Amino acid sequence: MNELRVWWSAAVCLTLMGTCACQRPATLAPEKQKPSALTIEPKVQMPAPLTVLFDIRASLDPVLPNVEIYDCVYEARVKTAKFRLQLRQGHPVSGKITTAAAEGKFLAVAGSENSALLEDLMKALEAKRLPAHAPRAPELAFDAAVLGEKQSRSSAGDYSDNPPGDWKLIKIFLPKGGDEGEVFLNVNPILGILGKAELSIKDSDYGDYVLGQLASVLRRL
After folding, report:
1. How many CA atoms does the CB half-sphere of 13 hold within 13 Å?
2. Residue-wise DSSP of 90-141
3. Structural domain of residue 151, as residue ranges?
4. Beta-strand (E) ranges in the chain?
5. pTM of the model
6. What would the pLDDT profile of 25-74 be if each residue is shown by its tens digit?
7. Is residue 8 included in any domain, yes or no?
8. Domain tally for the chain?
């Protein structure tokens, strides 16, 4: 009986081996060939925000020894706008970002032609309309925060402390004592023959309010 069982097992094994030998070995499906080079979509270069760049000249006032004072001039389309800027900076406050509290004023200058300046500010601040009946005022006071000093400016309008430069980055809060509108003011008192400063957008939601506030002091007295 044992011999019969051994013979039967051997016969089954031989039959299975023959069957396997006759079958074509299975092959794996070829992997999809990877492209030789990935197609990379070009980066979309976002346009830099519009700014209103104007000339500044440092001025001294013996009554205000700790205040930066600048006579400001903006020329466009045969119009010359003039106004004055005052800045007083406090001590730096260290945190995640080192800032310094500040305050200042825009002051009106008699005889200034400000229509071109207001039109260009409307575009830069993304305001929807020019203020038609903004009340005239001799000055516009504001609170501010100095966000950076010794900054350099790239051709794309970006700022960095590497390499260091002569720009001071300021965020203005309007009205003084409140926060209904914000705008950036960057100042470089030694760029070019005079110096340069610029006003630029913080948020388009502030556009109409900030423009209206600036118009009150930038309109001709």
Report:
1. 6
2. EEEE-SSS-EEEEEEEEEE-TT---HHHHHHHHHHTT-SS--SSPPP-SEEE
3. 51-218
4. 51-59, 68-76, 79-93, 99-108, 139-153, 159-160, 167-174, 181-188, 196-201
5. 0.75
6. 444 444 555 555 555 555 555 556 689 999 999 998 888 888 999 999 99
7. no
8. 1
